[in-house]
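Protein modeling request. Please complete all fields; requests missing the sequence field cannot be processed.
Requester role: graduate student
Desired output: 3D structure, C-alpha coordinate encoding
Chains: 1
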Amino acid sequence: MSGSPRSARGLGGLGVAVAVLALALTACSAGAGTSGAGTSGAGASGAGASGAGAPKQLVPPEQALQRMNALLDESLTDVRPALRYWDDNPDAVEQFAKGLDEHSLGYADANRRRHIMTRIAPAKYDTLLDMVESGWRAKGYTVTRTASTPPASIASAPDGAGVGITVHSSGLIEITAHVSPVPVIHGAFGTPTPVPTMPNGNPDDVPKYDDPFWSN
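Delivered output (216 residues):
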Protein backbone atom coordinates (compact mmCIF):
# COMPACT_ATOMS: atom_id res chain seq x y z
CA MET A 1 0.00 0.00 0.00
CA SER A 2 1.48 3.32 -0.96
CA GLY A 3 1.73 6.47 1.11
CA SER A 4 -0.06 8.57 -1.49
CA PRO A 5 -2.87 10.90 -0.33
CA ARG A 6 -6.52 9.91 -0.74
CA SER A 7 -9.51 12.22 -0.50
CA ALA A 8 -12.05 11.91 2.28
CA ARG A 9 -14.57 11.01 -0.40
CA GLY A 10 -12.77 7.66 -0.61
CA LEU A 11 -12.71 7.14 3.14
CA GLY A 12 -14.36 3.75 2.86
CA GLY A 13 -11.12 2.38 1.47
CA LEU A 14 -9.36 3.19 4.72
CA GLY A 15 -11.54 0.77 6.65
CA VAL A 16 -14.05 1.02 9.44
CA ALA A 17 -11.40 1.52 12.11
CA VAL A 18 -10.16 4.82 10.70
CA ALA A 19 -13.67 6.16 10.11
CA VAL A 20 -14.85 5.33 13.63
CA LEU A 21 -11.68 6.72 15.18
CA ALA A 22 -11.89 9.99 13.25
CA LEU A 23 -15.56 10.47 14.10
CA ALA A 24 -14.98 9.76 17.78
CA LEU A 25 -12.09 12.21 18.00
CA THR A 26 -14.06 14.88 16.16
CA ALA A 27 -16.92 14.47 18.62
CA CYS A 28 -14.56 14.69 21.59
CA SER A 29 -12.90 17.85 20.28
CA ALA A 30 -16.25 19.46 19.49
CA GLY A 31 -17.44 18.82 23.02
CA ALA A 32 -14.27 20.42 24.39
CA GLY A 33 -14.78 23.55 22.32
CA THR A 34 -11.55 23.17 20.37
CA SER A 35 -11.03 23.82 16.68
CA GLY A 36 -10.67 20.41 15.06
CA ALA A 37 -9.27 17.25 16.59
CA GLY A 38 -5.76 18.42 15.92
CA THR A 39 -2.54 18.03 17.80
CA SER A 40 -2.06 21.76 18.01
CA GLY A 41 0.08 21.97 21.12
CA ALA A 42 3.73 22.90 21.38
CA GLY A 43 5.59 22.43 18.14
CA ALA A 44 2.53 22.70 15.87
CA SER A 45 3.05 25.25 13.14
CA GLY A 46 1.78 26.42 9.81
CA ALA A 47 -0.37 29.29 8.65
CA GLY A 48 -4.14 28.97 8.88
CA ALA A 49 -5.68 27.28 5.85
CA SER A 50 -8.27 29.11 3.82
CA GLY A 51 -11.93 28.12 3.76
CA ALA A 52 -14.69 27.82 6.31
CA GLY A 53 -13.87 25.51 9.18
CA ALA A 54 -10.15 25.38 8.37
CA PRO A 55 -7.91 24.86 11.44
CA LYS A 56 -5.65 27.67 12.57
CA GLN A 57 -2.57 25.46 12.97
CA LEU A 58 -1.31 22.47 11.07
CA VAL A 59 0.90 19.73 12.49
CA PRO A 60 4.10 19.42 10.44
CA PRO A 61 4.25 16.06 8.61
CA GLU A 62 7.40 14.85 10.40
CA GLN A 63 5.92 15.69 13.80
CA ALA A 64 2.66 13.93 12.86
CA LEU A 65 4.57 10.83 11.77
CA GLN A 66 6.56 10.73 15.02
CA ARG A 67 3.35 11.12 17.02
CA MET A 68 1.59 8.31 15.17
CA ASN A 69 4.57 5.99 15.64
CA ALA A 70 4.53 6.77 19.36
CA LEU A 71 0.79 6.06 19.55
CA LEU A 72 1.28 2.67 17.91
CA ASP A 73 4.17 1.76 20.20
CA GLU A 74 2.32 2.90 23.34
CA SER A 75 -0.57 0.63 22.39
CA LEU A 76 1.61 -2.46 22.86
CA THR A 77 3.54 -1.31 25.93
CA ASP A 78 1.57 -3.54 28.34
CA VAL A 79 0.96 -6.42 25.91
CA ARG A 80 2.73 -9.58 27.07
CA PRO A 81 3.80 -11.86 25.48
CA ALA A 82 4.88 -9.47 22.74
CA LEU A 83 3.11 -9.62 19.38
CA ARG A 84 4.51 -9.74 15.85
CA TYR A 85 3.37 -6.98 13.49
CA TRP A 86 4.23 -4.71 10.59
CA ASP A 87 3.38 -1.05 10.01
CA ASP A 88 1.69 0.25 6.89
CA ASN A 89 2.85 3.45 5.19
CA PRO A 90 0.98 6.49 6.54
CA ASP A 91 -1.91 8.19 4.75
CA ALA A 92 -2.75 11.88 4.47
CA VAL A 93 -6.46 12.12 3.65
CA GLU A 94 -7.51 15.52 2.34
CA GLN A 95 -10.70 16.82 3.98
CA PHE A 96 -13.57 18.34 2.01
CA ALA A 97 -16.57 20.43 2.95
CA LYS A 98 -19.84 18.53 2.86
CA GLY A 99 -22.88 19.57 0.85
CA LEU A 100 -23.34 21.20 -2.53
CA ASP A 101 -20.39 23.57 -2.11
CA GLU A 102 -17.79 20.81 -1.91
CA HIS A 103 -14.29 22.21 -1.64
CA SER A 104 -11.04 21.38 0.10
CA LEU A 105 -10.81 22.57 3.71
CA GLY A 106 -7.09 23.04 3.26
CA TYR A 107 -5.93 20.28 5.56
CA ALA A 108 -5.72 16.50 5.83
CA ASP A 109 -6.15 13.79 8.45
CA ALA A 110 -3.12 11.56 8.96
CA ASN A 111 -3.47 7.86 9.74
CA ARG A 112 -1.10 4.94 10.16
CA ARG A 113 -2.02 1.31 10.71
CA ARG A 114 -0.19 -1.50 12.51
CA HIS A 115 -1.16 -5.00 11.37
CA ILE A 116 -0.95 -7.69 14.07
CA MET A 117 0.53 -10.86 12.57
CA THR A 118 0.37 -13.07 15.66
CA ARG A 119 -2.71 -15.29 15.61
CA ILE A 120 -5.04 -14.28 18.44
CA ALA A 121 -7.61 -16.82 19.60
CA PRO A 122 -11.13 -15.34 19.93
CA ALA A 123 -11.09 -16.26 23.62
CA LYS A 124 -8.10 -13.88 24.03
CA TYR A 125 -9.63 -10.82 22.29
CA ASP A 126 -10.78 -9.21 25.54
CA THR A 127 -7.43 -9.99 27.19
CA LEU A 128 -5.63 -8.23 24.36
CA LEU A 129 -7.87 -5.16 24.55
CA ASP A 130 -7.50 -5.03 28.34
CA MET A 131 -3.69 -4.92 27.98
CA VAL A 132 -3.82 -2.32 25.21
CA GLU A 133 -6.19 -0.13 27.21
CA SER A 134 -3.93 -0.43 30.25
CA GLY A 135 -1.09 1.12 28.28
CA TRP A 136 -3.33 3.91 27.06
CA ARG A 137 -4.67 4.75 30.52
CA ALA A 138 -1.11 4.87 31.87
CA LYS A 139 -0.52 7.72 29.40
CA GLY A 140 -3.62 9.57 30.56
CA TYR A 141 -5.70 8.77 27.49
CA THR A 142 -9.50 8.67 27.53
CA VAL A 143 -10.52 5.11 26.59
CA THR A 144 -13.80 3.84 25.14
CA ARG A 145 -14.61 0.15 24.51
CA THR A 146 -17.19 -0.16 21.73
CA ALA A 147 -20.21 -2.44 22.11
CA SER A 148 -19.39 -4.52 19.07
CA THR A 149 -18.66 -8.12 18.21
CA PRO A 150 -15.76 -8.65 17.60
CA PRO A 151 -14.62 -5.95 20.03
CA ALA A 152 -12.88 -2.66 19.38
CA SER A 153 -11.50 0.12 21.53
CA ILE A 154 -10.48 3.74 20.93
CA ALA A 155 -8.51 6.28 22.91
CA SER A 156 -8.03 10.03 22.69
CA ALA A 157 -4.89 11.70 23.99
CA PRO A 158 -4.83 15.07 25.79
CA ASP A 159 -3.13 16.63 22.74
CA GLY A 160 -6.05 15.60 20.48
CA ALA A 161 -4.35 12.67 18.77
CA GLY A 162 -6.10 9.33 18.80
CA VAL A 163 -5.57 5.61 18.45
CA GLY A 164 -7.83 2.59 18.16
CA ILE A 165 -7.67 -1.18 17.93
CA THR A 166 -10.16 -3.15 15.84
CA VAL A 167 -10.69 -6.90 15.71
CA HIS A 168 -12.34 -7.83 12.42
CA SER A 169 -14.69 -10.78 12.03
CA SER A 170 -12.09 -12.44 9.80
CA GLY A 171 -9.58 -12.41 12.66
CA LEU A 172 -7.52 -9.53 11.28
CA ILE A 173 -6.43 -7.08 13.96
CA GLU A 174 -5.36 -3.49 13.28
CA ILE A 175 -4.18 -0.66 15.47
CA THR A 176 -4.76 2.74 13.84
CA ALA A 177 -3.14 6.02 14.91
CA HIS A 178 -4.71 9.34 13.91
CA VAL A 179 -3.33 12.90 13.93
CA SER A 180 -5.10 15.95 12.52
CA PRO A 181 -4.84 18.52 11.03
CA VAL A 182 -1.79 18.11 8.80
CA PRO A 183 -1.01 19.89 5.54
CA VAL A 184 -2.46 18.51 2.32
CA ILE A 185 0.37 16.33 1.03
CA HIS A 186 0.87 15.72 -2.68
CA GLY A 187 3.06 12.66 -2.99
CA ALA A 188 4.44 10.31 -0.38
CA PHE A 189 3.89 11.01 3.31
CA GLY A 190 7.20 10.14 4.91
CA THR A 191 9.58 7.72 3.24
CA PRO A 192 7.59 4.85 1.66
CA THR A 193 8.83 1.39 2.54
CA PRO A 194 7.91 -1.93 0.92
CA VAL A 195 5.06 -3.72 2.67
CA PRO A 196 4.38 -7.48 2.70
CA THR A 197 2.03 -8.44 -0.11
CA MET A 198 0.10 -11.54 -1.11
CA PRO A 199 0.29 -13.04 -4.63
CA ASN A 200 -2.75 -10.96 -5.67
CA GLY A 201 -0.98 -7.75 -4.69
CA ASN A 202 -3.05 -7.02 -1.59
CA PRO A 203 -1.28 -6.31 1.71
CA ASP A 204 -0.38 -9.51 3.54
CA ASP A 205 -2.16 -8.71 6.78
CA VAL A 206 -3.46 -12.19 7.63
CA PRO A 207 -2.09 -13.33 11.04
CA LYS A 208 0.18 -16.32 10.52
CA TYR A 209 2.43 -16.66 13.56
CA ASP A 210 1.34 -18.93 16.42
CA ASP A 211 2.07 -18.08 20.03
CA PRO A 212 1.65 -20.53 22.95
CA PHE A 213 -0.39 -17.97 24.89
CA TRP A 214 -2.21 -15.84 22.32
CA SER A 215 -3.11 -18.52 19.80
CA ASN A 216 -4.72 -20.98 22.20
